[in-house]
Write a structure and sequence with these properties.
The chain is an alpha/beta fold and 327 residues long. It is built from nine helices and nine strands.
Amino acid sequence: MIVLWRVSNRCNLACPFCAYDKRLGLPREEADPVRVARFIDLLGAWREATGQPVLLSWLGGEPLLWAPRAELDTRAAEQGVDLSLTTNGTRLGAPQVRAELVRGYREVTISIDGMSDFHDAMRSWRGAFAKLAQTVPALVGERDAAGAALKVRVNIVLMRDNVAGFGQLCRILAGWGVDEISFNQLGGRDRPEFFPGHRLHPDDVARLAGEVPRLRSELRQMGTTLVGSAAYLERFADSVAGRPLPIIDCRVAETFLFIDEAGRVAPCSFAPEHFGVSVDDLQSPADLGALPQRLRSYQRANAHRDCADCPSTQQFAKFEPLATRVL
């Protein structure tokens, strides 16, 4: 089971495509650490009862700014729950943070969207790419020195502005020693004012689809895996062409759950308010085991508006060709 928990919508960067841009005047919220601790214990009990592994992944905002994280990381380790997080990389310059990741985490995903000029401007972080060119290899080196199991992944948001440089960026990241590279297409829900001028076009997606298989083979020789299945790229093509893909019977929750800052549970990050399920409703491993069917039944009877054109990357095999690894 993979549990992705958005524990905070606070961020220290100003990205024009992101809903959590620090310049936005939205209410800033964080998950209740008491509630999170109780759910970690439940995940541990479910793992013990089923023999199935659990990966708990912190998302933000910027989760490395979330104060309760270190204490809750310890609790997860005590329960045998593996840890992951997605970060903008601003805290990787701190040796203590890198040591915590090497010591306690199974995966870390770093968001990097392009070469220095583009990435620095898009993140409103001066010198960002140059800093990451130091801190990401440092993290990889410290992982290797410790013999730790940490996977270092980079995720790239692709848009009209950076898609032509995708291959070059991937080669540089492979040179930094990252284990895996994943990618999303720019979406329009978070910042609709930014989307029209920067969205991918059909020719961008066609070029990407032709490039990815060759690039994947090249990167494999460098020790880096480029994920993103043919079905995932087909979904890009459908999206840019305006072809909706409805999902009648969502089975994502059989392997994946999303939880937001308020503790609301859903099969994806687009509908946490829709299903009426909170982590507080889940009191036993049996409750957790019954949850996928509960969410599927509700979705079939009361589909969320986004189910008419599903935007969830989990639905479309973003992480293939490693699908056999899914917990």
